Amino acid sequence: MKQVQKIMLALSAIGLLTAAYLVIVHYTNVPLACSTSGLVNCNSVLNSTYGYLMGIPVADYGVVFFLVETAILLLTFGGGRVSEPLGRDIRMLYNAIGLVFVFYLLYAEYVLGHICEYCTVIHIVTVLLFVLSLFSLEQKPVDYYTASNPY
């Protein structure tokens, strides 16, 4: 496994653990380890209307996002079930979707006038995954059929 692949898997794990912490806090009503006043105010962000999408906490979507991200990484890296050229495109598209969602969440924090430090970790991880996916596209594209067909 290449160094970039290990970094992407580690980033995905960090994102998953951070989102999972927020989910656990939400469903168990455990106090969040974060400031509750001033600019950094996780409670204000997570409990706002922006903290939910279709009635589901945004952190739940984060857990699903990073679980799928990890599965994509494991399936598309060398030796995986998906050819490398197709895998690069899948990773790029998926991380681009994640980046769009990050922009939405940053807008929400701007409107609320508060920042959630855990959300910021997830934003940084998602941006880094996108950038690493973008760099992987610089490799010469290969015909999908030829790359995956041994005959």
Bulk shape: elongated
CATH topology descriptor: de novo design (two linked rop proteins)
Unreliable stretches covering 5 or more consecutive residues? none
Please tell me the total number of domains: 1
Compute the CA-based radius of gyration.
17 Å
User: In CATH, what is the homologous superfamily?
Assistant: VKOR domain
DSSP strand count? 2
SS field, number of helical segments = 6
Biggest β-sheet, characterized? 2 strands, antiparallel
Range of strand content: under 5%
Average pLDDT: 87
Known CATH architecture: Up-down Bundle
SSE blueprint and pairings:
Blueprint: H1 3-28, H2 42-46, E1 52-53, E2 56-57, H3 58-76, H4 84-112, H5 117-136, H6 144-148
Antiparallel strand pairs: 1-2
Helix pairs in contact: 1-3, 1-5, 3-4, 4-5
What is the compact description of this entry?
By secondary structure, this protein is mainly α.
Can you walk me through this structure?
This protein has 151 residues and is an all-alpha fold. The protein is built from 6 helices and 2 strands, in the order ααββαααα. The protein has helices at 3-28, 42-46, 58-76, 84-112, 117-136, 144-148; strands at residues 52-53, 56-57. It has a two-stranded antiparallel ribbon. A hairpin with a 2-residue loop joins β1 (52-53) and β2 (56-57). α1 (3-28) runs antiparallel to α5 (117-136) and α4 packs antiparallel against α5. The chain starts with a helix and ends with a helix. The mean pLDDT is 87.
